[in-house]
Amino acid sequence: MLQIPCPLCNSGENNFSFILNNWTIVECKQCAFKYVNPRPAQNEIEEMYGSNNHNDTMVVQVHQSYYGKGHIQDQAHYQKELKIIRRLLPGGNGTPMLLDFGCGDGSFLKVARLNGMDAYGCDIGSWNMNMIDEELRQKIYVGNFEDAPYEDGLFDVIYSHAVFEHLYNPRMVLTELSKKLKENGLLMITGIPNVRSLFINLGIDSFDGNIPLIHLNYFSKKTLSELLTVTGFEILQIKTWGVPLRLAFRKKAIRGEEKDNIIDWEDKILGSSMVKMLKKLSLFPVAKKSINAMLNLINGGAVIDIIGRKLSG
Ligand SMILES: [Zn+2]
Hints:
Elements: E1 14-20, E2 23-28, E3 34-36, H1 42-47, H2 58-68, H3 75-88, E4 97-101, H4 107-114, E5 118-123, H5 134-137, E6 140-142, E7 155-161, H6 170-179, E8 181-193, H7 198-201, E9 217-218, H8 221-230, E10 233-241, H9 245-248, H10 260-271, H11 273-280, H12 284-297, E11 303-310
Helix pairs in contact: 2-10, 3-4
C-alpha cells in the first residue's frame, strides 16, 4: 500500500474523511479534495481494468454489467450533450474532431458520428471491444492514453463520461489530455459522482458502484472546478443533477449487502415495474427537470457535469 500526496494540489497533509468498502478516504487539508489513501500501486490498479488481459477482475465485471445490460445514458441524452457542444464550439458547424476519453462500449461515439463529428475513442481495457462494431473499432485506441497516437492540438472537443473518478492521477491525465486539444478547444466531463450530494449528506446514498477501488476520487463541485482551473481551463458551465439510482427506483439500500449485488443492481432497476410506469407518465420529464433544478441550486445532485474551454498560452 502506498501513501500518496494529494493528486490535485500535491499537499501531503490530509485528514481522515470516511471509510467505504474497507478503504480509507482522506480529505486534503489544502484543497479539500477527497481521495483513497493509502492505495495499491498504479500498475496494480490498471491491471484490474483488463489492460493486461485480466478480463475476470471484479472491476471488469462491473463495467461489463454496466454496459451489457442497457446503458443508463440513452441516445436522447447524448443528443442533448452534443447540441451543447455544437453551440459552444468555436466556429460552430463543420466536422469537429472529437475524442471520447474512456469510451466504453462506444455508444457516445456512435451518436457523435451520426451528428457529423469525426469521433475517436480511447479506453484502457480491451474487454469492451466485442460490444463495438468493426468500423467503429478502427477509431478506438485501446491502452494507456500516454501511448495513444494523437498529435498535440488535434481535437476540437474532448468528452469524458464517468471516468475521472477512476483515475489514479486525474490532474496528470487532464494535463496530458489538454495537450491534445486545440487552443480554445472544449472539454466536457460528465457523470462524476458528487461527494457533497444531498443524498450523501443525508446518509441515504447507497454508494451503488461508487466504491473503492473502482473509484479512487471523490469530487465535489469545488474540487472538480479546481481540477480544470489548475490544468488551464476556463469553466463555462457546471451543474449537479440526478438522484442515486436505487433511491429513484425505491430499491432497498445496498449498504451492507454483499458486493455480488453490485453486479446485478442495474438489471433489477431497468426491469422494475416502477421504471415501466414512470416511462408511461408524460409528467415525468417535467418533474425530473424541477427536481434537478432544485438539486443544482443547492449543489446537491448525485453527479456533476462540467464544461471547460482550454485557455491559450
Ligand atoms: Zn489538495
